[in-house]
Write a structure and sequence with these properties.
The structure holds 2 protein chains of 2 kinds. Chain A is mainly alpha-helical. Chain A contains 17 helices and 4 strands. Classes of the chains: A mainly alpha, B mainly alpha.
Chain lengths: 442, 305
């Protein structure tokens, strides 16, 4: 029965059924080998030490699932006809696609901004949606900040979360110890993060790509460990709580205020709603994120921005042109860190509570994934990737256990599907025309 | 002095485990130039497979410990290698020849996936195991009663590490597989032209790295007696630090780096504060890299225009 339907399919697509079945069988056998111990035998806490639970159904499901999945994948591959590869046609297609993409961005970007501005006034904008939007916007801002370092300057930074943490703790500590307001702390937090970026960057930016990656990773872990252990100053694993909320030009968003002062809703004669604060926070992060974007776009037009991109493409050529690679990298690092610091202080004021738990390596990985999945150097790509990854996993919050599993799996799948990122139109800002023909990099 | 000797023993034991994991990083980096971020989680899976095998053998009533350990070792190496092979096949091979960061992101995704996979399948609680190998020697007794102890487990770890290192060096230096690996390391396209199956060689590199990580996982389980789904992260980072410290791409460098990181950590915890041992390990890495930008035994890379 099964074979007959297969043959029917085979007639249409000219499938090599025995080969496909063999392939599926091999995959299923490998899945069996992988699943039999880790899935099939679950360690359980028994009375005298660990015991084992047998779960052969789960293994069966996994094996059958792999078999069926592999079979469908094979059908999909067989359906796809190989494209004829003609170099000139490809280039033409790529060029027109890039043009189309440019016009699309020109139309879509302002629309997206307008959409973001009016979002809180939409009837469906409830607290949950706004919370998720704030989260997504925070990641967009972080992605844009990291994009300066990774996308423009081509430096692989695996410890970006360190600057996020520095910003968050700067704000929290300044507010708690010196009673400074959010708006006074924001530039200070950015400056502190910037300083940390320079402190880290100065000794290590001479290193080549992957060495730099591990040192930044180590730096991120070091900051976290210090925050965790310096109990007198940072309250260690307990975290800092009671971080002041931001105020609207001095008007707090509280229901009751001390006698003689006014709060936001009394001043504007509105009914009290906890949503006011959320909407305000939403606009703060929206403005901060757009500022980051605008700043980056302007920087790319400046000599320093050109130097970053040139450095990313060819360091030796840069050096022979008289660009100082260390200083150029250092500026990229410091500016990226500064935006991380801004985002961090926003995070602190939104949460009202921070602890080292929030600044683990996984955060760095997520931010880097947003940059790379979006297409390195693409500002729009960061938005798309952040909405997909952060918003997407938020949708699966109900399936809490499987959320991170799906997140990791999605990262692998997107990379395999589009290795250069979702929107991989990384145009050099400056281009010599006519473009040289042939002999380009593969 | 006695205290110093004790810490030296502990440090070498820990360093051996790091070294075994570091070899996997360094080999993969040498051959395809990528940081295999999921390697730490392969190590974790090795530890879990060992745990399950030991429990199974215990249920089957096998009581002769050397045989049980040998079976565990073989099963762990085989199954963990299968994981290493599958990870390479699914997440890295389609990205061969793609740009530099693509496999890295894929690897980070794989690492997140594997961690959560094991957490889902085996539960998030820590898994304690009663000591399997017990006893040891004590010597150098001090008047105040402090003795240096060298447990059988520590001896097993160091001996197994040395044996595997020797076998491995021979494999790389003498066999045709080792030659193929070195050829791919130098120039993959040229290696393919002279008839080396590059994909197969790379797969086998991953398999060997995973097998060594499985051994490290088993040793970790037996030495510390407790594992959870998260051990791969920190051990992986430390081992990668070790590989970089020794000069990434160099096998003796990975072993040396592993030993150094193990020793630094142990001595720092013993003489200073245990909380900042990770800071110390990374700090020393930064210092070494500033003065020796390619690590201790790494070859300086010649940049050509």
């Amino acid at each position: 029965m099964v074979v007959r339907t297969l043959n029917g399919v085979a007639g249409e697509f000219r499938l090599d059924i025995p080969a496909i079945l063999k392939d599926c069988l091999v995959s299923a056998l490998i899945a069996l080998a992988l699943a039999v111990f880790i899935i099939g035998l679950r360690t359980t806490d028994g009375s005298g030490g660990l015991g084992l639970d047998f779960r052969w159904q789960a293994v069966g499901i996994a094996v059958v699932g792999v078999f069926v999945g592999r079979f469908l994948l094979n059908l999909w591959w067989a359906r796809r006809t190989p494209k004829p590869k003609v170099a000139t046609a490809e280039q033409g297609v790529a060029a027109s696609a890039a043009e189309a993409f440019k016009t699309f961005v020109k139309v879509a970007a302002p629309m997206a901004v307008i959409g973001a501005v009016v979002l809180p006034w939409m009837p469906f904008a409830d607290r949950y949606l706004l919370d998720v939007s704030i989260l997504v916007l925070t990641y967009i801002m972080l992605g844009w900040g990291l994009n300066i370092v990774v996308g423009l300057a081509g430096l692989l930074d695996l410890g970006y979360v360190a600057f996020y943490a520095v910003g968050a703790y700067s704000y929290a500590l300044l507010a708690l110890y010196f009673d400074l307001s959010f708006w006074a702390c924001l530039p200070l937090a950015g400056a502190f993060a910037c300083l940390f970026g320079i402190l880290l960057g100065f000794p290590v930016l001479r290193l080549r790509g992957d060495y730099l990656a591990i040192v930044t990773l180590g730096f991120g872990e070091m900051i976290r460990v210090i925050l965790l252990n310096w109990y007198e100053f940072t309250k260690g694993p307990d975290g800092l709580s009671g971080i002041p909320r931001p105020s609207f030009f001095g008007l707090p968003f509280t229901r009751r205020v001390p006698e003689g002062t006014e709060s936001f809703h009394t001043f504007f004669d509105l009914d009290y709603s906890s949503l006011h604060r959320i909407i305000f926070l939403y606009y703060v992060i929206l403005v901060l994120a757009l500022l980051t974007n605008w700043f980056t776009l302007r920087l790319r037009r400046l000599p320093i921005g050109r130097a970053w991109e040139a450095l990313r493409e060819d360091e030796i050529a840069c050096r022979s042109l008289g660009i100082n690679p260390t200083n150029t990298k250092l500026t990229a690092f410091a500016i990226g860190a500064m935006f991380g610091g801004f985002a961090g202080s926003f995070f602190a004021t939104r949460q009202g509570f921070i602890s080292p738990e929030s600044f683990t390596f996984i955060e760095s990985a997520v931010i880097l994934a947003i940059v790379v999945l979006g297409g390195m150097g693409s500002q729009v790509g960061v938005v798309v990737a952040a909405v997909l990854l952060i918003g997407g996993t938020e949708l699966f919050r109900g399936l809490d256990e499987y959320r991170m599993l799906a997140f990791g799996g999605a990262m692998v799948l997107i990379m395999v599907w589009r290795p250069r990122g979702l929107l991989a139109h990384r145009e050099p800002t400056l281009k010599l025309s006519p473009a040289p023909t042939g002999g380009g990099p593969p | 002095m006695e205290y110093f000797v004790q810490q030296l023993i502990n440090g070498i034991t820990l360093g051996s485990i790091y070294g075994l994991i570091a070899i996997g990083y360094t080999m993969v980096y040498g051959i395809i130039g990528m940081i295999n971020f999921a390697h730490g989680d392969i190590f974790m899976i090795g530890a879990f497979v060992s745990l399950i095998t030991i429990l199974l053998l215990g249920m089957a009533g096998l009581s002769w410990i050397p045989l049980a350990l040998l079976i565990t070792l073989i099963v762990a190496m085989l199954l963990t290698s299968a994981y290493g092979w599958t990870v390479e096949r699914l997440a890295y091979r389609p990205l061969r020849g793609s740009f530099r960061l693509a496999p890295l992101i894929s690897a980070i995704g794989m690492s997140i996936f594997l961690q959560n996979y094991v957490q889902l399948a085996q539960g998030a609680r820590v898994k304690p195991l009663q000591p399997v190998v017990q006893g040891g020697f004590t010597f150098m007794e001090r008047p105040d009663g402090f003795t240096v102890s060298l447990s059988y487990m520590q001896i097993v770890i160091v001996v197994v590490t040395i044996a595997l290192m020797a076998a491995f060096s021979l494999l790389i230096a003498r066999t045709s597989l080792g030659r193929a690996q070195r050829a791919c390391e130098q120039d993959r396209r040229m290696a393919a032209l002279v008839g080396i199956n590059v994909d197969r060689t790379i797969s086998l590199t991953f398999v060997m790295g995973a097998a060594l990580a499985a051994v490290a996982g088993m040793m970790f389980l037996l030495y510390y007696g407790v594992i959870d789904f998260y051990i791969g992260f920190l051990a992986g980072i430390k081992a990668f630090t070790a590989a970089v410290l020794g000069g990434i791409g160099s096998l003796p460098g990975a072993m040396l780096g592993g030993l150094l990181i193990g020793l630094i950590e142990t001595f720092w915890s013993a003489y200073f504060t245990i909380e900042y041992k990770d800071v110390a390990a990374f700090g020393i890495l930064v210092l070494v890299l500033i003065f020796l930008p390619t690590g201790l035994l790494g070859k300086p890379e010649v940049e050509k225009v």
